[in-house]
Design a protein that fits this description.
This protein is α+β, with helices and mostly antiparallel strands. It has six helices and six strands; from the N terminus they run H-H-E-H-E-E-H-E-H-H-E-E. It folds into two domains: 30 residues, no CATH class; 153 residues, DNA polymerase, Y-family, little finger domain (Dna Ligase, domain 1). It is 39% helix and 26% strand.
């Protein structure tokens, strides 16, 4: 398209488009910035009030977020729940953890607590969970509580199995409900809607 036509339709931005389409770009090339948060969300094919389905989906999304955190070698201090109701009202609820974590269980438990507080009588259209305030791994050791260490080892073992055999090769009891609802693919569940986000 001629430069004059682009300028007449888009003004000064038309020249920029013309230049970019020809590979002319004087901007400095910079690597992508490090992620400041990680989240996953999905829109249900049909609005729901089914608490079991909501919690199962939240568990699955929490596991995806936790897995990505561990892959990036990060931990998070803040967990955020996102809900969109049938009337398209969207809410977010946040909770700051006492100690940073990359544990699926910690992310899920925090999300369920926020979900229980946020649920109304309306049906839910979308559910999501995210983490932010990312930090490098490290935490205060507790000599009396070994459960955190066990969860860390469990998450790493599950990550190894999933890397080798696919994400749904190993599941928690809560997410088994999803197997009957969503078809599986090589990489995990294939949700019926186009809204599974990273």
């Amino acid at each position: 398209m001629p430069l004059s036509a682009l300028k007449s339709h888009f003004g000064a931005f038309g020249e920029i488009l013309w230049r970019y389409s020809r590979g002319i770009d004087d901007r400095k090339v910079e690597p992508p910035a490090e992620a400041k948060s990680i989240s996953r969300e999905t829109t249900f094919g049909k609005d729901t009030r089914d608490h079991s389905l909501l919690k199962a989906t939240l568990r699955y999304l929490s596991e995806r977020v936790g897995s990505q955190l561990r892959q990036q070698g990060k931990q998070a201090r803040c967990v955020t729940l996102k809900l969109r109701y049938a009337d398209f009202t969207t809410i977010t609820r946040r909770h700051t953890l006492k100690q940073s974590s990359d544990s699926d269980q910690t992310i899920f438990n925090t999300g369920v607590g926020l979900l229980n507080q946020a649920l109304s009588q309306q049906k839910v259209r979308l559910i999501g969970i995210g983490v932010s305030s990312l930090t490098e791994p490290g935490r205060q050791l507790d000599m009396l509580d070994l459960s955190a260490r066990r969860l860390e080892q469990l998450d790493k073992a599950i990550d190894r199995i999933r890397q080798k055999y696919g994400f749904t090769a190993i599941q928690t009891g809560r997410t088994l409900l999803l197997k009957d609802i969503f078809p599986e693919t090589e990489g995990g569940y294939k949700l019926h809607t186009p809204s599974l986000s990273r």
